Amino acid sequence: MFFIALRMLTFDTAKYLGLIFTVAFSTFLISQQASVFASLMTRTTSQVRDVSDASVWVAHPEHRYIDEIKPLSESALSAVRGVEGVRWAVRLYRGLSRAKSADGTFRTCITMGVDDATLIGLPRRMVIGEPESLRDADAIFLDRFGYSYFFPGQDFKLGAVLELNDRGAVVVGVIDSSAPFVTFPVIYTRYSLALTYAGQERNTLSLILAQPEPGVSPTELASRIRERTGLTAMDANAFGWQTIWFYIKNTGIPVNFGVIIAVGILVGTVVAAQTLYLFTLDNLKQYAALKAIGVKNLKLAAMVLLQSSVVGAIGYGFGAAMCVSFFFFTKDMTHLRGFITHYEILGGTAALMTLIVIGASMLSVLRVVRLQPATVFR
Amino acid sequence: MSTNAAITVTDIEKEFGTGPNAARVLRGTSLTIPLGSITMLVGPSGCGKTTLLSIIAGLFRPTSGKVTVLDQNMFTMSDSQQVNFRRKNMGLIFQQYNLLASLSAAENAAVGLLAAGLNRKAAVKQASQTLTALGLQSKLDSLPRTLSGGQQQRVAVARALVHEPRIVLCDEPTAALDSKSGRAVMEMMAAIAVRDDRAVLIVTHDSRIFDFAQQIVHMEDGQIKETQDRRSFARVV
Description:
- By secondary structure, chain A is α+β, with helices and mostly antiparallel strands.
- In chain A, 51% of the residues lie in helices and 17% in strands.
- Chain A has helices spanning 2-11, 13-43, 46-49, 75-81, 144-150, 191-197, 218-229, 236-250, 253-282, 284-293, 297-329, 343-369; strands at residues 56-59, 86-101, 106-114, 126-129, 139-143, 161-164, 167-175, 186-190, 207-212, 232-235.
- The longest helix of chain A is centred in the last third of the chain and has 33 residues, at 297-329.
- The mean pLDDT of chain A is 88.
- The longest helix of chain B is centred in the C-terminal third of the chain and has 15 residues, at 179-193.
- Chain B is globular.
């Protein structure tokens, strides 16, 4: 009987495509908006994620999120180094500076200053150049999109010069850093040099990166640092999430995306239910005939669910493909970099669409099950 | 105990709705359809013919009364038993054919067999043989929309007869057909459906086909007014 269900479904091409595109657009709306939201939140933690050497981050006790740094005193570093279980701890500077290229192009940049001795804190992905070059005088690394801002249309090359706080800075490497929340260029340099690019403050130590001794977990070490120093200390993952939660709780971003996703779910459910139900109503006489001939309710319900499942699966496939295509074709756009398809979201959307389609088809199943077969005689 | 009656309807009452809006459609209707015959149920529109046909088919439950088909009480069976009984022993033919638009003629004729669990290939093969017997061998793969009214009704007849049911119930099978097509359908039905152990009940207004009946039952206001056998109405026809 299932081939009959599929024939009924595909017989009217316009209705069939209408059903599929209802599910497809709903899937696209939900998965694309959720992915944009997740990507946006991920971008807020880009500088944290780019540091792969340290598993514990230490900050001022009043630290709330990465874009609002309250500097530590130099004694904090010694205090952290003195905590049992700390293998090493190094300085990290994070601040904003103004950079200008030779042609006058001006940008505010995120400036990261890594430990002079070890260079811990540098992203590992380099497009051009060597990490050791950062030890040269006035050496900076610029992220690839920052390079495109300052030197549009030019191939990456070493030796390009920027002016930072009236000091010359030589680009000795181009890094492939993660996209930041705001589309500022990202500069990496040595801690000591970063201080000369920034405005002078009494305290300049932004953050401390630490690594536990073997056998000590990052969570345990962070706990010890908090207890011993009173500073904020977290493992890298929790440190990133602190920033994400700050944006979720203190901005309208989640509400706005949440509304769009909710509309996607609502429209998807209502329109899918209505379209599937109308499709069933159009075929009611045929279902009545099948029922009169001797097809049982269970099989008719299975036929309706099969039709819904096929529509759901194909519609979801198209919607997911549209979502993946969107992010694939926009991945090289500067302002959209870092926006990617989150496959967990596609999985979640699949589960959600399954619920929507099953919920929507329940109306149709009920209509068919309650259908009086005697209507065929009217 | 086995009898010569294919269908026995005893004191059937049927009301639709409740309270002051209740419509009493059948009022103590009793009827016997013998095996080996074609019986035609005639009467004015709204007299309860189709309701009676639906009750005999087990598609409606009567308010009171008893229906026995092939010695089985239709309404002491469970719903599932009733569906199985209908699928095995009954063939239904509708006025509007009710063919599935997306299926070929052979597939439409095979629907009853598919519902009974026969595999698709065997069901379509068997249905094709029935359609061939009805003269539709060149239309096996045609969709209903490409068939004439007469051809569509022949497919519907094939669907009703393909599993060789002992009871065939028809609602106005020739109403949508011209005289020639109507007679052709009736000739086929008489040739294929009528055997000593089978019976055909036809609800009709179409006096052109009365001469195919062994018995004509007249209904009026939900009651049987008169039953004529072939000898008595042959003089009228």
